[in-house]
Amino acid sequence: MLVLHQKASVEVEDFRKAQPDAIALASTKIISRLKSGGEKTTQALKALCWRTKGIQVEEAAIIGVDSVGFDLRVCSGTQIQALRFAFNTRATSEYSAEIQLNDVLFPKIHQKPQQREQTYQNEC
Protein backbone atom coordinates (compact mmCIF):
# COMPACT_ATOMS: atom_id res chain seq x y z
CA MET A 1 0.00 0.00 0.00
CA LEU A 2 1.38 3.39 -1.02
CA VAL A 3 0.76 6.28 1.34
CA LEU A 4 1.39 9.79 0.11
CA HIS A 5 1.95 12.60 2.58
CA GLN A 6 1.07 16.19 1.87
CA LYS A 7 2.82 19.00 3.63
CA ALA A 8 0.65 21.65 5.21
CA SER A 9 1.77 25.05 6.34
CA VAL A 10 0.74 26.58 9.64
CA GLU A 11 0.94 30.27 10.35
CA VAL A 12 3.30 31.08 13.23
CA GLU A 13 0.59 33.08 15.04
CA ASP A 14 -1.88 30.18 14.73
CA PHE A 15 0.75 27.84 16.15
CA ARG A 16 1.35 30.16 19.11
CA LYS A 17 -2.38 30.44 19.86
CA ALA A 18 -2.99 26.69 19.62
CA GLN A 19 -4.08 24.91 22.78
CA PRO A 20 -3.80 21.19 23.49
CA ASP A 21 -7.01 19.19 23.14
CA ALA A 22 -8.12 18.58 26.74
CA ILE A 23 -9.97 15.41 25.77
CA ALA A 24 -6.92 14.01 23.96
CA LEU A 25 -4.90 14.57 27.13
CA ALA A 26 -7.44 12.40 29.00
CA SER A 27 -7.62 9.81 26.21
CA THR A 28 -5.77 7.10 28.16
CA LYS A 29 -8.22 7.31 31.07
CA ILE A 30 -11.25 7.28 28.77
CA ILE A 31 -9.93 4.27 26.85
CA SER A 32 -9.16 2.42 30.08
CA ARG A 33 -12.70 2.91 31.36
CA LEU A 34 -14.13 1.84 27.99
CA LYS A 35 -11.98 -1.32 27.94
CA SER A 36 -13.37 -2.29 31.34
CA GLY A 37 -16.57 -3.16 29.45
CA GLY A 38 -14.77 -6.24 28.11
CA GLU A 39 -16.36 -8.35 25.38
CA LYS A 40 -19.50 -6.20 25.26
CA THR A 41 -17.40 -3.20 24.23
CA THR A 42 -15.39 -5.25 21.73
CA GLN A 43 -18.57 -6.50 20.07
CA ALA A 44 -19.96 -2.94 19.99
CA LEU A 45 -16.78 -1.70 18.26
CA LYS A 46 -17.03 -4.46 15.65
CA ALA A 47 -20.74 -3.75 15.11
CA LEU A 48 -19.96 -0.04 14.67
CA CYS A 49 -17.49 -0.83 11.88
CA TRP A 50 -20.10 -2.94 10.10
CA ARG A 51 -22.99 -0.52 10.70
CA THR A 52 -21.22 2.68 9.64
CA LYS A 53 -18.39 1.64 7.32
CA GLY A 54 -19.63 -1.69 5.95
CA ILE A 55 -16.44 -3.39 7.13
CA GLN A 56 -16.54 -6.74 8.90
CA VAL A 57 -13.60 -6.89 11.31
CA GLU A 58 -12.12 -9.68 13.42
CA GLU A 59 -10.51 -7.31 15.91
CA ALA A 60 -11.17 -3.72 16.91
CA ALA A 61 -9.47 -1.58 19.53
CA ILE A 62 -9.93 2.06 20.40
CA ILE A 63 -6.58 3.84 20.09
CA GLY A 64 -7.42 7.50 20.59
CA VAL A 65 -10.09 9.94 21.70
CA ASP A 66 -10.19 13.71 21.25
CA SER A 67 -12.82 16.41 21.40
CA VAL A 68 -14.17 15.74 17.91
CA GLY A 69 -14.13 11.93 17.74
CA PHE A 70 -12.18 8.74 18.20
CA ASP A 71 -9.91 6.34 16.31
CA LEU A 72 -10.05 2.56 16.09
CA ARG A 73 -7.39 0.13 14.94
CA VAL A 74 -9.12 -2.74 13.17
CA CYS A 75 -8.02 -6.02 11.67
CA SER A 76 -9.93 -7.41 8.72
CA GLY A 77 -8.35 -10.49 7.17
CA THR A 78 -4.70 -9.63 6.62
CA GLN A 79 -5.34 -5.88 6.55
CA ILE A 80 -4.84 -3.61 9.55
CA GLN A 81 -6.11 -0.06 9.36
CA ALA A 82 -7.14 2.90 11.47
CA LEU A 83 -10.69 4.20 11.22
CA ARG A 84 -11.90 7.61 12.37
CA PHE A 85 -15.36 8.21 13.85
CA ALA A 86 -16.65 11.73 14.53
CA PHE A 87 -18.82 12.86 17.42
CA ASN A 88 -22.05 14.72 16.63
CA THR A 89 -20.84 17.73 18.62
CA ARG A 90 -17.50 18.79 20.06
CA ALA A 91 -16.90 17.21 23.46
CA THR A 92 -16.04 19.79 26.08
CA SER A 93 -15.20 17.41 28.94
CA GLU A 94 -14.15 13.82 29.60
CA TYR A 95 -17.72 13.14 30.66
CA SER A 96 -19.25 14.49 27.44
CA ALA A 97 -16.74 12.53 25.35
CA GLU A 98 -17.64 9.31 27.19
CA ILE A 99 -21.37 9.99 26.81
CA GLN A 100 -20.94 10.46 23.05
CA LEU A 101 -18.73 7.37 22.79
CA ASN A 102 -21.39 5.31 24.54
CA ASP A 103 -24.12 6.80 22.34
CA VAL A 104 -22.18 5.79 19.22
CA LEU A 105 -21.31 2.30 20.50
CA PHE A 106 -24.64 1.48 22.11
CA PRO A 107 -27.28 3.35 20.08
CA LYS A 108 -30.75 3.46 21.52
CA ILE A 109 -33.66 2.92 19.17
CA HIS A 110 -35.70 6.10 19.27
CA GLN A 111 -39.24 5.38 18.26
CA LYS A 112 -42.03 7.84 18.96
CA PRO A 113 -44.82 6.49 21.23
CA GLN A 114 -47.35 7.45 18.55
CA GLN A 115 -45.66 5.12 16.05
CA ARG A 116 -45.83 2.21 18.50
CA GLU A 117 -49.54 2.83 19.08
CA GLN A 118 -50.21 2.84 15.32
CA THR A 119 -48.30 -0.43 14.91
CA TYR A 120 -50.29 -2.00 17.74
CA GLN A 121 -53.60 -0.81 16.25
CA ASN A 122 -52.67 -2.23 12.84
CA GLU A 123 -51.95 -5.62 14.39
CA CYS A 124 -55.36 -5.85 16.13
TrEMBL record:
<dbReference type="InterPro" id="IPR037119">
    <property type="entry name" value="Haem_oxidase_HugZ-like_sf"/>
</dbReference>
<protein>
    <submittedName>
        <fullName>Uncharacterized protein</fullName>
    </submittedName>
</protein>
